[in-house]
Design brief:
Blueprint (H helix, E strand, L loop, with lengths): L3 E6 L1 H5 L12 E2 L2 E2 H4 L2 H6 L1 H14 L7 H8 L5 E6 L5 H5 L4 E3 L2 E8 L7 E2 L17 E5 L9 H9 L3 E5 L21 E4 L13 E4 L3 H15 L1
Parallel strand pairs: 1-4, 1-9, 4-5, 9-10, 10-11
Antiparallel strand pairs: 2-3, 6-7, 6-8
Helix pairs in contact: 5-8
C-alpha cells in the first residue's frame, strides 16, 4: 500500500506559471485594492467590477500552463497516495495530472449563487449581471472564498492532513489562516518539507520541518528525490 503524501500548495507555485499574486504587490491585485475585489462588501458595492475582475482572471488561465513544480507533484502519484490541498483557485494542478485535489478557496472555473456556497456549477466563461443559477434562479457569483467568508473545506482538509505519512508545503508564505495552520494537524513524527524562496519561520515541536529555500520547480525536484529515496 502506498504511503499517504499530502501537498499543501499556495500562490507561489502558480506564480512561476505567470499567475499574479496580490501579496507581492502591497495589497494590490492587478491594480485593484483587494478589499474592492475579494470581499463580500466589495461585491455588494460594485458587482460589475468584481465580476469583470474574475472574468479577466478566468481568461488568463487560457494563456498560462502548469510548471515543473505542478508536474512533479502529479508524477509523485506513481510512488505515493498523493492528495493536494491548495489555496489556489486556478486549475493548474488538474492540468498537470494530479487526481486528488481539494481547493480551499474555491475555483475560478466554477460559479455559485449569491446566497449559497454549496451549489457550484462548471462555468468556464464570463459571469455577467443577469446570469442565473439553473436551479435556484439566483444571480451567479465566482465560486471563490473571499476575505471575511468561512472556508467550508477546512474540516475535510484537516482530516486529510491527519492521515498523512509525509507533508509538503510549497509556495506559501503561511500568512493566510486557517490554511496556514493545516500542517499542525500532521501526526507527531510525520516529516514536513517546506519549499518556498522566502520561507516563513516555523515552530513545530512535534514534527521535523526541513526547509528548501527555492522556487517550487527547483525545490520540488529536491523533495521528490528525497521522498523516493525513503521508499
Amino acid at each position: 500500500m502506498k504511503k499517504k503524501l499530502v501537498v499543501l500548495s499556495g500562490a507561489g507555485i502558480s506564480a512561476e506559471s505567470g499567475v499574479p499574486t496580490f501579496r507581492d504587490a502591497g495589497g494590490l491585485w492587478e491594480g485593484h485594492d483587494v478589499m474592492d475585489v475579494a470581499t463580500p462588501e466589495g461585491f455588494m458595492k460594485n458587482p460589475e467590477l468584481v465580476l469583470e475582475f474574475y472574468n479577466q482572471r478566468r481568461r488568463q488561465l487560457s494563456i498560462v500552463h502548469p510548471n515543473k513544480g505542478h508536474l512533479i507533484i502529479a508524477e509523485l502519484e506513481e510512488h505515493f497516495d498523493v492528495h493536494v490541498i491548495t489555496q489556489n483557485v486556478d486549475d493548474l494542478h488538474e492540468r498537470a495530472g494530479s487526481s486528488k485535489i481539494l481547493h480551499l478557496h474555491g475555483e475560478l472555473l466554477k460559479a455559485r449563487s449569491v446566497k449559497k456556497y454549496d451549489d457550484p456549477i462548471e462555468w468556464p466563461g464570463d459571469i455577467k449581471i443577469g446570469d442565473k443559477h439553473p436551479e435556484s434562479g439566483l444571480q451567479l457569483r465566482p465560486h471563490i472564498v473571499w476575505f471575511g467568508e468561512a472556508v467550508p473545506a477546512i474540516p475535510e482538509a484537516v482530516a486529510i492532513v491527519e492521515e498523512a505519512d509525509y507533508v509538503i508545503v510549497v509556495g506559501t508564505s503561511l500568512q493566510v489562516y486557517p490554511a496556514a495552520g493545516l500542517m499542525d494537524y500532521a501526526q507527531p513524527g510525520v516529516p514536513i518539507y517546506y519549499v518556498d524562496p522566502n520561507p516563513a519561520t516555523i515552530s513545530n515541536g512535534k514534527n521535523k520541518v526541513e526547509v528548501f529555500p527555492h522556487i517550487a520547480s527547483i525545490g520540488m525536484e529536491m523533495v521528490r528525490d528525497k521522498l523516493i529515496s525513503l521508499i
